[in-house]
Amino acid sequence: MEIRIGTRKSKLALAQSNWVADELKKISPDLKVEFVKITTKGDKILDVPLAKVGGKGLFVKEIEEALLRKDIDIAIHSLKDVPTQLPEGLEVSVFPKREDFRDALISRDGKGLKDLDKGAKIGTSSLRRQAQIRAFRRDINIESLRGNLDTRLKKLDEGLYDAIVVAAAGLNRLGLSDRVTELISPDIILPAIGQGALGIELRSDDEEVKKILSSIHDEKTSICVRAERAFLLRLEGGCQVPIGALCRFVNEKEISLEGLVADEMGNKIIRELLVGSSSNPENLGESLAEIVLKKGADKILQEVYGEL
């Protein structure tokens, strides 16, 4: 059988797609894999913050259209880039084992986040990271930084920034973990929903492909990211609002979910943790969302969306 994988053209997207292909071939050595490279709107617009031009969906729309046209069979996404609401007929239901979920700081002088000089310039395009960094270090300057990982590292090396913050998982997948100055504790920066996880998108009625993909599905990863995405879905959140969440197993039957909603400046941060059954992760995500909404997240969301 042949399977066509739709992927963005970045080094990270190709590395992720190649990894999935290699894992599938370990189970089915005769499987033929074709890569279909697709340029998304998010790849073209690099000079404007995502929050102002449509958010995460910019990285998946063209790929999803190719799926619906049956030009490709599956799409490999960084799950944190995938909106919680998908086009009819598509699903993200296969999740390989999660990579490191933490954010990573890379600094030019080898200093960690706590020790960076006063007035240091940090580059990141994530409002979630910006809000939490500001809450931790009010004396640091944060500037927007878009582009693929190579572009961000190049701008750091050229001296345009003193440090940058990126997802550790991407660095690991590209063999660049040696660049990491500090892996930032989720106590300081709570990760994005689904960070470190891959999500495989496919047509809901394609049972043959589902059967092939089942060999690389990790159920614990699935449970955790489903809880996180349910939290985000209930909040109706997107790139316009700093929202983070992290689900972890407490034991074989229980999971903990920590969630955060903040304003862009990090002045207001609502952060709560809830423990529940691993048998219904969506319920845990929705319940935690209700808690943070009642604690003041509703006002933050109203203020942000009222300004858009």
Task: Tell me briefly what this model is.
By secondary structure, the protein is an alpha/beta fold. It is built from ten helices and 13 strands. The chain starts with a strand and ends with a helix.
Please characterize this protein's 3D structure.
With 308 residues, this protein is α/β, with parallel strands linked by helices. The chain folds into three domains: 118 residues, D-Maltodextrin-Binding Protein, domain 2; 82 residues, 3-Layer(aba) Sandwich (D-Maltodextrin-Binding Protein, domain 2); 90 residues, Double Stranded RNA Binding Domain, CATH 3.30.160. The protein has ten helices and 13 strands. The strands form three sheets. A five-stranded mixed sheet has the order 2-1-3-10-4, with helices on both faces. Strands 7-6-8-5-9 form a five-stranded mixed sheet, sandwiched between helices. The chain has a three-stranded antiparallel sheet with strand order 11-12-13. The protein is globular and about 60 Å long. The chain starts with a strand and ends with a helix. The model has no long low-confidence stretch (mean pLDDT 92).
CATH-level-4 superfamily name of the largest domain:
Periplasmic binding protein-like II
Give the helix/strand class. alpha/beta
Number of strands: 13
| Amount of beta strand | 15-25%
Strand order of the largest sheet: 2-1-3-10-4
Summed up, the domain count is 3
Helical proportion? 25-40%
Briefly note the CATH topology name of the largest domain: D-Maltodextrin-Binding Protein, domain 2
> How large is the radius of gyration?
19 Å
Please tell me the overall pLDDT: 92
Q: Under the CATH scheme, which class of the largest domain?
A: Alpha Beta
N-to-C SSE string, H for helix and E for strand: EHEHHHEEEEHEHEHEEHHEEEH
Main sheet summary: 5 strands, mixed
